[in-house]
Design brief:
The chain is an alpha/beta fold. It has a single domain, classed as Rossmann fold. Helices cover 46% and strands 15% of the residues. The protein is built from 12 helices and 14 strands. It has helices at residues 2-29, 94-102, 116-125, 140-148, 157-167, 171-180, 199-223, 251-261, 266-279, 289-301, 308-311, 334-353; strands at residues 38-39, 45-48, 51-54, 57-58, 65-67, 74-79, 105-108, 133-137, 189-191, 194-196, 226-231, 304-307, 314-315, 318-321. Helix 2 (94-102) packs across helix 12, helix 3 packs parallel to helix 7 (199-223) and helix 7 runs parallel beside helix 10. It is globular.
Length: 354
């Protein structure tokens, strides 16, 4: 009896301790990152009378309801947090800005965390909406979900992924996750202390992305819908996320060396910056090979292609996207959203007219 009472007291004390720690963490650091708090159901979209409701949305925003049928050309946009993450707000995100520039009806179906596997389903379910154009922006999350959620970790990875997503609602967990996540998850390899995906895993992700893009284009083609593929861009000038490395292979040292090349040899500097980005798995930026995937799919299917990284405004002194276009390593600033909208708008306008 005494042992049971003591165990109960210990449990209550422990719960109170963690509740207090969570409260203190929220007081000092604020609420957990909203981009990880995504409401999802079995279906991404569901029909509600004469409208369609988007089931995948941020927890602190109202579900989006879209009119099912319209009598004018409409463009749908699908992708992850580079398409919609709530910062900046929807009216300043590039799908809305495209609508403003073209005076066209645009619908943003993007949501944080969606990768090309998700988009195959989103596009299939989007048949419930009349539309003339499907704009696809995906690639970062194919790598991010593989790396951060240990897709190649073995049989238990799915359960661990679900547990991790649930725990992301705790501020205490996100603080610990920021501190220790880069030390390895699943069976990621280590190259001089830098977590990487193996060559085989990288090839598998690229192959899956290519197959999914083909499926999306074919699905849209069967409906008479034009597809605009927008290959993803990232802030190549953003420092690498990984801080732990051996002296002989340190991404941070290579990044500083690239900075030193900017004035002497801008072309070599751009190549060096890209090489660092392409190995910096911790920052979840899609590598350069993703553009090659997009080019092949566009050539083989006839889909329209806009290469975001090649077409965005350039940084001073080096032929790379300007850092001011991004809030961090890959999410667009207000200026970045508008720049991307201005880049893709002519291609979308052509697709809407055909």
């Amino acid at each position: 009896m005494k042992a049971t009472r003591a165990a109960g007291l210990a449990l209550v004390t422990t719960l109170l301790f963690f509740a207090g720690a969570e409260g203190l963490a929220r007081l000092v650091y604020g609420a957990p990152r909203p981009m990880m708090g995504v409401e999802r159901q079995d279906a991404y979209l569901h029909v509600d009378g004469d409208g369609v409701v988007v089931n995948h949305h941020l927890k602190d925003e109202a579900p989006v309801r879209v009119k099912r049928a319209v009598d004018h050309p409409r463009a749908l946009f699908v992708g992850g947090s580079s398409v919609h993450q709530g910062v900046p707000p929807r009216p300043q995100e590039w799908p809305a800005v495209v609508g403003e520039l073209l005076r066209a009806d645009t619908v943003n179906l993007g949501s944080p965390g969606l990768d090309s596997n998700d988009l195959v389903r989103v596009v299939q379910e989007a048949e419930a909406l009349t539309h003339k154009v499907m704009v696809v922006y995906v690639g970062h999350n194919d790598f991010a979900n593989a790396f951060m959620r240990a897709r190649f970790a073995g049989g238990g990875s799915r359960a661990l992924s679900r547990l991790r997503v649930a725990l992301m609602g705790l501020r205490l967990f996100t603080l610990l996750d920021d501190r220790f996540a880069s030390r390895g998850a699943g069976r990621r390899q280590e190259e001089a202390g830098v977590p990487i995906l193996s060559a085989g895993e990288k090839a598998e992700i690229l192959s899956g992305l290519e197959e999914n893009l083909h499926t999306i284009v074919e699905t849209c083609g069967d409906r008479g819908v034009n597809v605009v593929l927008v290959s993803p861009a990232s802030s190549v000038l953003h420092p690498p996320a990984e801080q732990v490395c051996a002296p002989e292979r340190c991404l941070n040292d290579e990044f500083r060396a690239a900075q030193g090349l900017v004035r002497r040899d801008p072309k070599a500097a751009a190549e060096a910056f890209r090489a660092v980005r392409d190995r910096d798995w911790s920052s979840i930026r899609a590598p350069s090979e993703v553009v090659e995937v997009y080019r092949r799919v566009a050539q083989e299917t006839g889909a329209r292609l806009v290469e975001a990284e090649a077409g965005l405004p350039r940084a001073d002194g080096v032929n790379l996207p300007a850092e001011r276009l991004f809030l961090d390593q890959l999410h667009y600033s207000v200026e970045g959203h508008r720049a991307l909208a201005e880049l893709v708008a002519p291609t979308i306008a052509e697709a809407l007219r055909r």
